[in-house]
Amino acid sequence: MEVKSTVTEGVTVLTPTGRVDTSTAKAFETSVMDAINASKKIAIGFNEIDYISSAGLRVVLMAGKKLQASGGVLVLINMPEKIFAVFKMSGFDKILKICSSFEEAKPFFN
Amino acid sequence: MGNLTKILVLDDEEDTEDLFLQKFRHQIEDGIYEFSFATSLEKTEELLKIGRPDIFLTDINVNGIDGIDLISKLRKEYPLMRSVVISAYGDINTLRAVMRGGAHDFVIKPIDFNDLTETLRKTAKAVDKLKAAEATNMKLVAISNELDVSAQLQKSLLPGNVVKKGNIDLYAENISAAECSGDFYDFFWLSDTKLGIVIADVSGKNVSAAMFSIIAKTLIKAYSRVYESPAECFKNVNASICHENVATMFVTAMYGVVDMEKNELTYTNAGHLPVGLVQPGKEPVFLECDSGMALGIFEEVEFSDNVHKFTPGDTVVFYTDGVTEAASKTGEEYDYERFTAALRANTKAPPKILNQEIVKDIRKFTAGAPQSDDITILCLKYRLRIMPNAN
Predict the structure, then answer these.
(1) Calpha distance B103→B101 (Å, rounded)
(2) What is the distance, to the nearest Å, from the Cα of residue B239 to the centroid of all Cα atoms in its chain?
(3) What secondary structure does DSSP assign to A73-99, as a single string?
(4) Which residue in A24, B245, B281, B334 has the fewest CB atoms around it within 10 Å?
(5) H or E stretch including A4?
(6) CB contact under 8 A, A89 and B202
């Protein structure tokens, strides 16, 4: 698992790759928390993820809560059907913003 | 640095001791080396026991003692000590024999003290590393023992594997991937005719997950006595967990109440996987239900009760994603298609057999790959009640 980080139009876009599971969740958490400390506008792209376990979901959830508390914005983008099913199953789609693309997510950051 | 290295020298030449003390006087004064000397095997063994040297420096042949034999013996007795052999014979075969005997290094006679200094420095460094590794290893062993105890404690909190009473025939099993499990199941009698059943999966694994799972398990059981409706029970469990959940952990869970008077299962879902329904000779299905959010995330969440009316022979299957997401050697997931096939092949099986057949099928699929997640399955077969006064 690696986390690519780019800045587009003032939004930090994080793209984890491979498997986000118990063994890699800590590294994912560090990358996400570093990004949150540096920026209030975060998008996480899920297009290069093969698998996300509950430990990974916890990191996403924590990021959402942290940003919400500090007046920031988190949008989850480019989510394949299979990953979306995981978010829907656990009910996370109700409290996290999920958009199909960065373009669609843009209004949330303005 | 600051580490004192203790060196035992075995040599039968008389001036060795004086020579060493002279050549290494700076290191001795600075507390880097401490030397002891022996000229016989008896003295060597005594000093090994008392002094516990880090480095054993020996001539290849001292008063008829075979240095190579000796160091290979000492290597086993004192695994944290390293030996350096002094040899008058510099030929390759002798030196190979020395190294094969377990020496860390060698020096050639007559001793070049610059070379010996460098050799001792390197050997001391190797011993330091060895000791550090051993210390880390000891810590790991201690942690591992602690984990084993925690795992035992957690296992002891599970209610057992079997319920057989009235119409109910239940079998449940938890196979954890780490020492402690993030999954748990539970069952408890709410009255003579009502059995509560729970399956849950905590985010993460091992100790943190186990601690959280104990909180969730206790709360569910406690609230199940207060609220008859599973949905009401979960609403209150959720609020309690949310209240002080700083670590943002969460748990997906399914809780059902089997009512033997009404012949039905009332269940509620907090972000967990759908219940499987297996009926003799029929295609297995997964019960559609309204799902609330996983427990521990959001304080104000509503849950809903869903009802399944039992027909005799029905088996409901509660499970965790360790089943559907079990990964093969190539990273493929077991998934619902294979899971359904395993259920289809065992529609008439008693719950224990059904449970074991699913696990067997997963094991076959994942052969050669490490178990990545906890696997928990609870099967409850609802049998036809034979009324004592029926004819």
Answers:
(1) 6
(2) 32
(3) EEEEES--HHHHHHHHHTTGGGTSEE-
(4) B281
(5) strand A2-8
(6) no
Dihedrals phi, psi of B134, to nearest 5 degrees: -65, -40
Amino acid at B137: N
% of chain B beyond a pLDDT of 90: 65
Instruction: Single out the residue of B303, B308, B289 nearest to residue B231, CA to CA.
Output: B303
Interface predicted TM-score (ipTM): 0.70
Q: Is B39 exposed, middle or buried (0-12, 13-18, 19+ CB in 10 A)?
A: middle
Q: What percent of chain A has pLDDT over 70?
A: 100
At residue B38 the predicted structure's pLDDT band, cuts being 50, 70 and 90, is very high
Chain A contact set for B201 (CB, 8 A): 54
Residue type, position A105, single letter: A
Between residues 261 and 300 of chain B, which touch chain A (CB distance below 8 Å)?
A: 270-273, 291-294, 297-298
Could you say which of A21, A62, A91 has the minimum Cβ distance to residue B248? A62
Contact B206, B273 (CB under 8 A): no
Side chain identity, residue B182: G
User: Any idea what the Cα angle at residue A17 is, between residues A16 and A21, rounded to 5°?
Assistant: 80
Sign for the pseudo-dihedral over CA of A58, A63, A66, A68: negative
Q: What is the assigned CATH class of domain A2-104?
A: alpha beta
Domain assignments of chain A as residue spans, ordered by start: 2-104
Within chain B, residue ranges assigned H as helices are 16-23, 25-29, 41-51, 67-77, 92-100, 113-157, 206-226, 230-243, 321-324, 335-344, 351-365
Residue tagged 């996987």 (tokens): B273
Helices B16-23 and B113-157 pack at an angle, to 10 degrees, of: 80
- Mean pLDDT of the B361-374 span: 90
Is A82 an interface residue toward B (CB < 8 Å)? no
Q: Which residue has the tokens 């943002």?
A: B248
Contact across the interface for A95 and B250, Cβ inside 8 Å: no
Q: Which residue of B has its CA nearest to A87?
A: B271
Nearest Cα of chain A lies from the Cα of B117 at a distance, in angstroms, of: 44
**pLDDT tens-digit profile of B128-177?**
999 999 999 988 888 888 888 888 888 888 899 999 999 999 999 999 88
User: What are the tokens at B196?
Assistant: 């509560």
User: What gap in Å lies between CA B113 and CA B121, rounded to an integer?
Assistant: 12
* CA separation for the pair B306, B270 (Å, rounded): 12
Instruction: Answer whether A92 touches B (CB < 8 Å).
Output: yes
CA distance A9 to chain B (A): 30
| Least CB–CB distance from B204: residue in A50, A54, A91 | A54
- Please give the residue of chain B at the shortest CA–CA distance from A65: B248
* DSSP per-residue string spanning B132-171: HHHHHHHHHHHHHHHHHHHHHHHHHHS--SEEEETTEEEE
Q: What are phi and psi of B12, to 5 degrees?
A: -100, 5
